UniProtKB/TrEMBL annotation:
<comment type="similarity">
    <text>Belongs to the short-chain dehydrogenases/reductases (SDR) family.</text>
</comment>
<dbReference type="Pfam" id="PF00106">
    <property type="entry name" value="adh_short"/>
</dbReference>
<dbReference type="InterPro" id="IPR036291">
    <property type="entry name" value="NAD(P)-bd_dom_sf"/>
</dbReference>
<dbReference type="GO" id="GO:0016491">
    <property type="term" value="F:oxidoreductase activity"/>
</dbReference>
<protein>
    <recommendedName>
        <fullName>Short-chain dehydrogenase/reductase family protein</fullName>
    </recommendedName>
</protein>
<dbReference type="InterPro" id="IPR002347">
    <property type="entry name" value="SDR_fam"/>
</dbReference>
<keyword id="KW-0560">Oxidoreductase</keyword>
Length: 327
């Protein structure tokens, strides 16, 4: 089958429709699915063809609104909701236990949820919150769901893990491996929220690289930059001044269309996630970083392209969660 060329302007529906035979019957979990976000859009587009779509969020009422909205648009959709608070490792374990009780295997795990408030805080597990939500908890969730992922393998399919990162992974010096759990008091990472966000979005890229290497022949892993998209994230109180300072937003808080950042719609932003989850042209590109629906490893920070860094981060994260993650 000849597939169309995807690019900057491609939408999630265009990708899902083109890859409908790949999506058909697959069971997919997408984290962070509040309406007006790319996780919701990803789940909605996939739900047209998937066997099961599991959506997660920390707020049960908002989560149900998302499920209702998907089912209203796609009446035949099979959607389940799981409350998942990524700021708590205990909550991650509880959610994983619920998912593992399902009879179905899991074909795709999409880590879309992110901590984006740019407010510095420490979680109940003594982990800086941006790193906890963007990296440590997804790492633990992947480990706990690994048997269910591997159970979906067949001669025609290897399970996929997709990590939604950000352009910010390339906008800094790379992750400080001595401060993954939390920055030192008074350090730049503690006072510069954008620097810590850069680190928290670099860590998942390295994890995808490490997972691809460790899981070769068993699963595939990808990370990606979805694009610059105006969602509910850009309206948060602490985020607005930070984005105004670098020219992303105008003084009135609206997108600066004259900046160097090229804006996408939410459907355009979710398209790369759907590509990463299902495009067979990526079968021999596990570990890759994607942008605009295609492989873009040249856009990945050099530090985040180094397998040695991926290995070091893997070991550090195992220490934080208190257990080994063997693929």
């Amino acid at each position: 089958m000849s597939l169309p060329t995807f690019g900057f302007s491609t939408t999630s529906d265009e990708v899902a429709d083109a890859l409908s035979s790949e999506i058909a019957g697959k069971n997919v979990l997408v984290t962070g699915t509040s309406q007006n976000g790319i996780g919701f859009e990803t789940a909605r587009a996939i739900a047209k063809y998937a066997g099961l779509v599991i959506i997660t969020g920390y707020n049960s009422e908002r989560l149900q609104l998302s499920a209702d909205a998907i089912c209203k648009e796609v009446p035949k959709a099979n959607v389940r909701t799981v409350v998942l608070d990524l700021s708590s490792l205990a909550a991650v374990r509880k959610a994983a236990e619920e998912i593992n009780a399902y009879s179905e295997p899991l074909h795709v795990l999409v880590h879309n949820a992110a901590h984006t408030s740019l407010v510095y805080s420490i979680t109940v597990d003594d982990i800086e919150s941006q790193m906890a939500v963007n990296h440590v908890s997804p790492f633990l969730l992947t480990k706990l769901l690994l048997p269910k992922l591997l159970a979906s393998a067949s001669p025609k399919w290897l399970p996929r893990v997709v990590v939604v990162s950000s352009e910010s992974q390339g906008m800094g010096p790379g992750i400080d491996l001595s401060a993954v759990r939390k920055p030192a008091p008074g350090s730049a990472q503690e006072t510069d929220v954008l620097l810590r966000y850069h680190e928290a979005k670099s860590a998942p890229v390295l994890t995808a690289l490490g997972l691809a290497k460790r899981g070769a022949g068993k699963l595939r892993a990808y990370s990606l930059h979805p694009g610059t998209i105006f969602t509910n994230v850009q309206t948060k109180e602490a985020v607005v001044p930070a984005l105004q300072a670098i020219g992303v937003l105008k003084e009135d808080g609206q997108p600066n269309l004259e900046s160097a950042f090229k804006w996408k719609t939410i459907p355009q932003g979710a398209a790369t996630t759907v590509v990463a989850a299902f495009d067979p042209r990526l079968n021999d590109k596990s570990g890759s970083f994607l942008e605009d629906c295609v492989e873009a490893n040249e856009k990945r920070h050099a530090v985040n392209s180094d397998p040695a860094n991926a290995e070091k981060l893997w070991k550090v994260t195992e220490e934080i969660i208190g257990e080994e993650f063997v693929v």
